[in-house]
Specification:
Blueprint: E1 2-9, H1 10-15, H2 23-26, E2 27-38, E3 42-51, H3 58-63, H4 65-72, E4 74-83, E5 88-96, H5 99-108, E6 112-121, E7 124-131, H6 133-145, E8 151-157, H7 171-182, H8 194-201, H9 205-226
Antiparallel strand pairs: 1-7, 1-8, 2-3, 2-6, 3-5, 4-5, 6-7
Helix pairs in contact: 5-6, 7-9, 8-9
Length: 239
């Protein structure tokens, strides 16, 4: 697997209909936290959106749900968390893909997915993708052929999870643990409950709890081993 990070002018993405026109009149920044599902016709994403002014309440967003969905081409959105201090919403969004994005996904043949870092502001967009080398090359060639302006920030191989930092987490554990951290499950006090976190993950709360506990156990064992602090096993009594 390969990863690539590109930089675009946000105005160019607005012109192509990938970013809604006028979006940054109301908002400062969008960060893609995770793509939960990506198909040619639509995508399901967990987003952090920073508003320019004070945040609206959950009730206000609910009353304006129809207008917001129509304005930004959303099939649905759900408020996961409000962060008034930083003026951030955490939203679970299902959105229709614009024509140009559908073309690029079709060209990639399903071998492409967004990855971190992925941030949009009014002036520039930094977008990262993970995928098969051939799929990434096909998309980049199409951008060059269409003379679509971009800057290549980084391109590299993507190490396996078990080689990325000696965490020995499975890909599922790494993904769910990262989501739990981002959404404040490990904050003190917690900003999201296990039940709410499970809802964003499409899992039951007990099932998600088991995945997180196993991941936490692996991380603790790894740290104890690195510190030489693992307790010695009890000797087995002789018969």
């Amino acid at each position: 697997m390969q990863s690539v990070t590109l930089e675009f002018r946000t105005d160019d993405l607005v012109r192509l209909g990938i970013v809604p026109r006028g979006f940054f009149d109301r908002y400062e920044e969008v960060e893609l936290l995770e793509t939960l599902r990506l198909e040619r016709g639509w995508r399901l994403e967990l987003l952090r959106i920073r508003r320019r002014g004070p945040l609206r309440s959950a009730a206000e967003l609910g009353r304006e749900s129809r207008r917001i969905r129509a304005l930004y081409g959303l099939e649905s959105f759900e408020l996961v968390e409000r962060r008034p201090r930083t003026r951030d919403y955490i939203l679970l969004v299902r959105q229709r893909n614009p024509d140009r994005l559908r073309q690029w996904l079709s060209l990639a043949g399903g071998g492409l997915s967004p990855a971190a870092p992925f941030r949009l502001s009014s002036e520039r967009t930094v977008a990262s993708f993970l995928g098969e080398d051939r799929a990434l090359r096909r998309v980049l060639k199409r951008l060059d052929r269409e003379e679509f302006p971009y800057r290549l920030v980084r391109a590299s191989g993507h190490p396996k999870v078990e080689d990325a930092g000696a965490t020995s987490l499975t890909p599922l554990q790494a993904r769910l643990l990262t989501r739990a951290w981002v959404l404040g499950y490990y904050a003190v006090p917690r900003r999201i409950t296990l039940t709410r976190l499970a809802h964003t993950s499409g899992r039951s709360a007990p099932g998600l709890g088991k995945v997180l506990r196993r991941a936490e156990g692996r991380l603790v064992a790894r740290w104890l081993a690195s510190e030489g602090a693992l307790p010695e096993a009890e000797p087995t009594p002789e018969p």
